[in-house]
Amino acid sequence: MIIVSCITNNYGLLFNNRRIAQDRTILELVYKQFIHFKKLHPDIQFFMNKYSYKLFLTYLNNLNPILSKKEYLNFIKSIIVSDSFLDEAGQYDICFVECNDTLPYFKSNKVIGIIFYKWNNAYPCDYFFALPSDFTQHFILQKETKHIGHSHSTILEEVLRHEQ
Fold first, then answer.
1. Which pick of 38, 66, 90, 124 has the fewest CB atoms within 10 Å?
2. Can you tell me the distance from the alpha carbon of 99 to that of 120, in angstroms, rounded to the nearest whole number?
3. How far is residue 117's CA from residue 155's CA, in Å, rounded to a whole number?
4. Of 88, 83, 92, 85, which is closest to residue 34 (Cα–Cα)?
5. Higher pLDDT, 65 or 129
6. Domains, in order of start, for the chain
7. Can you say how many angstroms the Cα of residue 35 is from the centroid of all Cα atoms in its chain?
């Protein structure tokens, strides 16, 4: 699976049960990454939980002129919402993670890639993205791109892949 997650510089995900990921630039980037991977692997699916789905329904509908109504509806239809989505995801499926423990999936080598969207800040958080201690030995930075966000001046996109 390929994990997509929005984090602070200290890998924070949530603060007081509120999400970090609300910048519509990130959702546009996530959409574009999914379309890119879908061209490479036509059978992939996009997984998330109910909490994240609400975010996509709200913000993707406002991404005009980025998405036509048809593109929006097709993308929303391609999203699989499940509380156990990390268990259900296949090798190349994309999983949007905001409040799930991913550590067991790293340990079982199910994660083949990660896309982090980072704020250039270390906000106070009470839930963090957990990485295995040997993470840097198995994942290499493939691409790093700076984007201008709507709520933040800089969003850093990091694409990492599992080194076989």
1. 124
2. 20
3. 6
4. 92
5. 129
6. 2-162 (3.40.430.10)
7. 13
